[in-house]
Automatic annotation (TrEMBL):
Lineage of the organism: Bacteria, Pseudomonadati, Pseudomonadota, Gammaproteobacteria, Alteromonadales
Keyword Signal: yes
Annotated signal peptide: 1-17
The entry's keywords: Signal
Organism field: Aliidiomarina sanyensis
Protein name: Secreted protein
């Protein structure tokens, strides 16, 4: 019974020869982003109700699909002269993980880094959501921002049109849209990363 189930999964493309579990919507979403590897795009804030110290609206926003492998993407998110943020998307075998790698100017990890979430369902080839994972919730409690345990990050991509990064929770929404029809010059190397030849 187990063998026949495994055979059926392989025939449906759910299990690769290497044994990594995957499903078509996750693969398609991942590949929709990966096709832009090596390119950068400018974004604009279309929703932001945050009234804190840092506002995205006052800075030039650029995403760079910088490093790509079959199972992982590194996408720095540059906010003006701040090159501290990199989104890391990873196929985990149970879905897709989104992590936020935050670095200091000297390259060392920021106190709040590697938070993020993981898909909990199939999603769609053009849209995936990432509710905060347990590591992130514990980190938010440690950093005395318990409201963030309800964070869900969303990414939408419509090839040739736009890519969106969105954060939602009760009372908080941020969305940045990037124009995929108009590549821009590549931004500087993100903090903590090495130059690419």
């Amino acid at each position: 019974m187990i063998l026949s189930s495994l055979t059926a999964a392989i025939s449906l493309g759910l299990v690769s020869a290497a044994g990594t579990v995957s499903i078509p919507t996750h693969d398609a979403f991942f590949d929709n982003i990966r096709q832009y590897c090596g390119q950068a795009f400018e974004g604009r804030v279309v929703e932001d109700n945050f009234t804190g110290i840092e506002t995205f609206k006052e800075n030039r926003l650029v995403m760079h699909v910088r490093e790509c492998s079959e199972n992982q993407l590194h996408i720095p998110f540059h906010i003006g002269d701040n090159h501290s943020r990199t989104w890391i998307l990873t196929k985990t075998g149970a879905g897709i993980s989104l992590k936020h790698d935050h670095r200091m100017p000297n390259g060392e990890p920021d106190d709040g880094t590697m938070y993020g979430g993981h898909t909990v369902d199939a999603g769609w080839e053009f849209a995936q959501s990432f509710p905060a994972d347990q590591y992130s919730k514990e980190d938010f409690i440690r950093r005395k921002i318990p409201q963030s345990i309800w964070n869900t990050w969303h990414m939408y991509i419509y090839p040739g049109e736009f890519f969106s990064y969105r954060l939602t929770r009760e009372g908080r929404e941020l969305r940045v849209d990037f124009d995929l029809s108009n590549p821009v010059d590549l931004p500087p190397t993100p903090w903590g990363y090495e130059d690419i030849d």
